[in-house]
Specification:
Ala_racemase_N, 42% helix, globular, pyridoxal phosphate, eight-stranded parallel β-sheet, alpha/beta, pyridoxal phosphate binding, 8 strands
Length: 242
Amino acid sequence: MASVAAAEGAAAALRSVLSRAQQAAARSGRAPESVRVVAVSKTKPVGVIRGVYDAGHRCFGENYVQELIDKAPQLPEDIGWHFIGNLQSNKARALLAGVPNLDMVESVDDQKIANRLDRVVADLGRKPLKVLVQVNSSGEELKFGVDPSGCVELAKHVKLGCPNLMFSGLMTIGMLDYSSTPENFMALANCQEEVCKELGIPEEQCELSMGMSADFEQAIEMGSTNVRVGSTIFGAREYPKN
């Protein structure tokens, strides 16, 4: 019964988050459908994820390769999974082979992982994989992501040098405590402007993935098109006790 209650609670929380996201989009003069909510389900059981799916949601995110490989086959194939954690090159094949409905990798932060994903997509005969370039907008050494000064070069490499990848935009996590400041969001928006100018693409073709549970409304108001919301939908993380 507890899992049923958790699933129902998550579905209700999702509806609230979607409403808040749509209102934030309206405040910034954008259409409600201009923002995607990625329901981040790390550490959450399949039954609870299914409750959110049954509420009509189809976009989910996971941080760990093995967890996503374990969960994906137990859930409907029309889910579009986003991988949002740090991805090591040696796990790229397992991820892409194990999750046929992987829709996007949001965490490409150097040419090595871009090249590896490009080769694996080709080897598996998959359709081109959507990717975001992860930018370290806070300057913290412990954070993954390319420095803002290198985002144009990496975006250009993905778009022009990786035919099996589809450059789709930029992502940032923000501060170490998973909060962000307007400066973090502004830094990513500035990167977007530079990348679009260099690649000759409109900003609509360069998504901004920024904002999480604590700050997704502010992020949307500052241009985010993709917010990653976990605990506000699913509740606190449930890490195994040692």
